[in-house]
Amino acid sequence: MVNKKIGRPTNNPKSESIHIRLDNESVEILDKYSKQENITKTEGIRRGIQKLKNDLK
């Protein structure tokens, strides 16, 4: 029997998992942004992390 991978093929696999706790204000901001942009909360978090790239030295 051949093992097949399940799921969509991707050029950018997400192999890392991070679990966080957020305060109420952060959750509200993330919820509003996700609804406004019609994206998942996970994608909203990824976009926020990408914006941090500008602050790197």
Low-confidence stretches: none
End-to-end gap: 51 Å
Strand % is under 5%
CA gyration radius, whole angstroms: 15 Å
Secondary-structure-based class equals mainly alpha
Helix segment tally? 2
| Average pLDDT taken over every residue | 90
Q: What kind of assembly state do the chains in view correspond to?
A: single chain
Main pleated sheet: none
Number of strands: 0
Task: Explain what this protein looks like in three dimensions.
The protein has about 55 residues and is mostly helical. It has a domain at about 25-55. It has helices at about 25-35, 40-50. Helix 1 packs across helix 2.
Task: Please outline the helices and strands.
Elements: H1 24-37, H2 41-52
Name its key features.
57 residues, single chain, mainly alpha, 0% strand
Can I get a quick summary?
This protein has 57 residues and is mostly helical. The protein has helices at residues 24-37, 41-52.
